[in-house]
Amino acid sequence: MDSDIRDYKHFTIQHQLTNRVRIITPVLKDDPERGYILEILLKKRPEISVVRSVFGIGSVVVEFDSSRLPKKNLLIMLDAVLGNIAQKQPTVKNNKKKQFEGPVQDIDLAVEGMSCASCALLIEMVLNRDERVKTASVNFATQTVNVQGQLSKADVVHQIEKLGYSALMVDTLSQRKKLIEKEHHRIDAARRRFVWAGLLTIPVVGVAMAMNTSRWAHWLQFALTTQVVFGTGSQFFGKAYRLAKQRAANMDTLIALGVGSAYGYSVPSLFRQRGHVYFEAAAAIITFVLLGRYLEERAKGKAGEAIRKLVDLQPQTATLLKDGQEIVVDVDEVLVGDWVLVRPGERIPTDGKVVFGLSTVDEAMVTGESMPVVKNIGDAVIGGCVNGNGVLHVETTAVGMDTVLAGIVHMVDQAQATKLPIQKQVDKISAVFVPSVMAISAATLFGWMLAGAPFAFAFGNAITVLLIACPCALGLATPAAIMVGTGQAAKKGVYIRNGESLEVASHLNAIVFDKTGTITEGRPKVSEVFNLSGFDDAVLVTLAASAEHGSEHFLGKAIVEFARQKNIELRECSYFYSETGRGIRAEVDGYKLLLGNQDWLRSQNTDISKLELAADRFAEQGKTPVFMAINGEAAAIFAIADNPRPEAAAAIMRLHELGIKTLMVTGDTEKTAYYIADRVGIADVVANAKPDEKLRIIQQLQSEGFRVGMIGDGINDAPALAAANVGFAIGSGTDVAIESADLTLVQGDISKVTETIELSAFTIRVIKQNLFWAFGYNTIAIPVAAWGKLNPMIASAAMALSSVSVIVNSLRLNK
């Protein structure tokens, strides 16, 4: 081991070679999510080729290009990144019933065959009974299941298939696209089933309405109804039987009981040639339910339109370059390190870097940049973006679910699958709904018979109770609205990590802004260098940029970019320490360097009085001064300018119109902060704020009764973003900030915050309307049916349309 490598705070080195290092860190043992964040951060560095983590023992193996990233710099960077990740609170919640030791897998699958919300509740209940499952959540609207536990994907598939449903993989966007194609086939199949049942049912109902009591008419009804019940309606009986074996029931059980009772009572009456027949009720029930299912499938298809558009961005195939040949393969067959050919006008199949060619790429999908970006050798490209007029050879750096586009889709998936607190209460009601309806139906039958009513009348009322009840409307009320709402947010460039934040956003009454990269454009540039040192400017810039090379801070990156523009070659940094929100300490070529704000240099006992006059001048111009000291002596100031975003002033004015309090809390100097705040219309400013002070301000506002939103983009914003009621991260910001936030503004447009708050309020309004309708419908319809005031056919039609009405109401969010 190198003798000059310091002791690292957050890991120990277990093994190292020139281009490979293995470390052991306790940071990953607490929460595997931290490991995922670390992998994301490392894989985005072009110098790093492989990252392998074993969360259970806290092991991380990194393979890298030492000619582009010196080993010492990598280790310093690892220590700084792990330090920031360690501040992130574990997301795994304690489970009082089940104790888990070791890693917990996160499994996502698509589920086929769910016909109503009670199907989703059944699957969820069965999975949660398994001792190996920590949590299981099934979403009927999105037809997905998420399981966290210590069982394999095959085990989850087996559990679901045992209940009579199908579980399908959604590990790649290509698999998602195939599922979407299946959805189109499912809608077509639902339409065909309804049309066929309708054609057979029309004559059956016609005979009943004509009051034709001749024997041949009843036999015609029997022949046609039998085809409807055991043909197009066989799915209801099959599912009801499988559920009965599991001692469970759902909406299919109610339909099977209702139809089976009507048909089963009518057949003996037909053969005895006496008594009433209910063939028209049995056939009409099946037809109306199939109509409802078809309309529901169509409506759900429209609700999922946003995520389909995202998935469609990735092409199905890629042109692989191997041994001088072009081979067209499925995009799932492309591996990291493969070279792919991207012709003019084609979509880039997966994330990578350009190894040959020159072109422009339209990245509006991810960055919101309206202008195409020039891509040369060495530049990174994002899968799903459209190539311009040039030919590119791209080396793949990420595939499958590791790509940027897949990450965005996964984020939207997570948001759509989230259950709001109100939905959890609805689930409890829905879980006992079907058994309760069956009990009410039985009570209706015996109650009317005890009252002296004819059996046929009592029996008809009991069937009507079974058919009028609709747990689907209850189950769809919340997820349908969340699905459409989060999809609309995605169209606007706002990706929501969880649906709960969509609910909370509607109640925000205070917004705290960071300055750099949030209110400003986040493209800071060094406009001037004030040099007091004995070094010439080139040497000074070389030392500063070499020290800042490992920094994630915007101002540090601006200095590095300034050096690159001057074609200055960076040196190896032998020591690096970063204090978030204040500055860095580093050693380059034997020089001990300090870079940061004035508080940072003062805390290091550095006299900066000779620099303060120039710093004030820069601050009055709205420029941020970055102080530099060499070997303990004040050396220079880098004046860094960053203009306000064009939409910032209008966005903040709109927040004020909504009665929302705004504050700017920044680590920048007071004069610079007030200069920017004045230009965008913010009156309350806190300058020179450290990360812990930003966190304290959030907590103080919350203690005063405010519901607080925080908008930021840097590592120093992460604690405040996590503590806020809703955290908004700027999409161009650091990964730690994005991971800490609830919502990501992909295009960096802060006017989207106002739109998100308004969309949130609309979504909650729609959810309340849906729940009012669903509860109101069942509360009124079931007693009316039990009282004998409804015909079974009308009941089945009302039941079929009730869940459709909930989805149609949710689709108003698209407008």
Give the helix/strand layout:
Layout: E1 12-16, E2 20-24, H1 27-30, H2 32-43, E3 48-54, E4 59-64, H3 71-86, E5 105-112, H4 117-129, E6 133-139, E7 144-149, H5 153-162, E8 166-169, H6 173-209, H7 215-232, H8 234-245, H9 251-272, H10 279-303, H11 305-311, E9 317-322, E10 325-330, E11 339-342, E12 352-356, E13 359-362, H12 364-367, E14 373-375, E15 380-381, E16 386-387, E17 392-396, H13 404-417, H14 421-450, H15 455-468, H16 471-491, E18 494-496, H17 499-505, E19 510-513, H18 515-519, E20 525-531, H19 537-548, H20 554-565, E21 573-579, E22 583-588, E23 591-596, H21 598-603, H22 609-620, E24 623-630, E25 633-641, H23 648-657, E26 661-665, H24 670-680, E27 684-686, H25 691-703, E28 708-712, H26 718-723, E29 726-730, H27 735-740, E30 743-745, H28 751-786, H29 792-810
Parallel strand pairs: 19-26, 19-28, 26-27, 28-29, 29-30
Antiparallel strand pairs: 1-2, 2-4, 3-4, 5-7, 5-8, 6-7, 9-10, 9-11, 11-17, 12-15, 12-17, 13-14, 13-16, 18-30, 20-25, 21-22, 22-23, 23-24, 24-25
Helix pairs in contact: 2-3, 4-14, 6-7, 6-10, 7-9, 7-10, 8-9, 9-10, 9-15, 10-29, 13-16, 14-15, 14-16, 15-28, 15-29, 16-28, 16-29, 17-28, 19-20, 22-24, 23-28, 28-29
List keywords for this structure.
29 helices; 51% helix; 815 residues; seven-stranded mixed beta sheet; 5 domains; disordered N terminus; Calcium-transporting ATPase, cytoplasmic transduction domain A; elongated; alpha+beta; Gyrase A, domain 2; six-stranded antiparallel beta sheet; 30 strands
